[in-house]
């Protein structure tokens, strides 16, 4: 299997070939009418539930606007600590030269993503939803810190990329939404390739010497982080912005709904396969949570 350093060198070359300027890449509409689909209906949080059936067509489309705004905010806010962590790893003695070179491209591309998602949210929603709470183990070795960091990277990017791939092809959506998803996916395909291989390279030596208690604690942290990340997709404020007044009750309903849990399983499938393959998880969890 190719090392993460060797892969990083190839990805750097691809990033140079495919470099782009975030300030000239998009034709931003002056405004949105409010009647377009902004997120694919199948990806919206209430889809397939009796609550969705009870919404009018206008309510569904309005919900899709705020759901895509929440999604873009989640990606933006998830990439902020990601960039901070990548910068911290630049020119570290523990970071190979080829990896450092690629991390420069990684940081540059993530900064562009924050600009484009921030522009959309400020221009068309007038807000960016606040940063999520980051769950971090209280005490970690240096090796555990690296694994935790790249797990966070992959949870943000694996979930987001599923949405990107789905929405970039959906002709029901406004063109600017399709384009943002398309551009994001192109860069993220490289980020995911690096992140997956780098996580594998970190987990092999760590899990070979870790105690059973360390393994269990790392696995439990990862499960809690995945649950927290999915909970942010069902933002009570998002529901209220869409005109649905019982935001917290909707959040609780979606977290416990078997229909929504099945959607989460589909979206999370590749990510869970990776975490099981690396040994961080023994099996893919049931993604259904009730209070």
Explain what you see.
With 291 residues, the chain is an all-alpha fold. It has one domain: Orthogonal Bundle (Ribonucleotide Reductase, subunit A), CATH 1.10.620.20. It has ten helices and no strands. The longest helix has 35 residues. It is globular. The mean pLDDT is 94.
Draw up the topology in text.
Elements: H1 4-17, H2 50-53, H3 57-89, H4 97-125, H5 142-168, H6 175-209, H7 212-232, H8 236-241, H9 247-256, H10 258-278
Essential attributes:
291 residues, Ribonucleotide Reductase, subunit A, 69% helix, mainly alpha, globular
CATH superfamily, please?
Answer: Ribonucleotide Reductase, subunit A
Largest sheet: number of strands, sense, barrel closure: none
N-to-C SSE series? Answer: HHHHHHHHHH
- Write down the CATH class: Mainly Alpha
DSSP strand count:
0
Q: Count the domains.
A: 1
User: How far apart are the termini?
Assistant: 43 Å
Q: Per CATH, which architecture?
A: Orthogonal Bundle
């Amino acid at each position: 299997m190719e090392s993460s350093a060797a892969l990083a060198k190839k990805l750097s070359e691809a990033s140079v070939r495919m470099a782009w300027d975030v300030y000239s890449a998009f034709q931003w509409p002056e405004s949105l009418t409010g009647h377009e689909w902004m997120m694919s209906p199948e990806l919206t949080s209430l889809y397939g539930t009796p609550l969705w059936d009870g919404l009018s067509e206008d309510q569904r489309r309005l919900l899709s606007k705020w759901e895509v705004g929440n999604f873009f905010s989640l990606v933006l806010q998830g990439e902020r600590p990601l960039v901070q962590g990548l910068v911290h790893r630049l020119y570290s003695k523990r970071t190979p030269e080829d990896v450092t070179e690629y991390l420069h491209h990684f940081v540059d591309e993530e900064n562009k993503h924050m600009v484009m998602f921030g522009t959309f949210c400020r221009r068309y929603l007038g807000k960016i939803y606040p940063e999520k709470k980051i769950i971090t183990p209280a005490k970690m070795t240096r090796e555990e810190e690296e694994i935790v960091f790249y797990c966070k990277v992959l949870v943000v990017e694996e979930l987001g990329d599923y949405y990107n791939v789905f929405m970039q092809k959906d002709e029901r959506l406004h063109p600017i939404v399709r384009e943002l998803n398309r551009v994001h996916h192109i860069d993220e395909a490289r980020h995911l390739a690096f992140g997956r291989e780098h996580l594998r390279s970190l987990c092999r030596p760590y899990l070979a010497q870790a105690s059973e208690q360390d393994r269990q604690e790392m696995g439990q942290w990862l499960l809690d982080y995945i649950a927290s990340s999915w909970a942010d997709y069902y933002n009570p404020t998002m529901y209220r912005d869409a005109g649905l007044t019982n935001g917290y009750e909707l959040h609780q309903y979606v977290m416990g709904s078997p229909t929504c849990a099945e959607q989460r399983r589909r979206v999370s499938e590749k990510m869970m396969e990776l975490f099981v393959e690396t040994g961080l998880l023994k099996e893919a969890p049931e993604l259904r949570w009730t209070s």
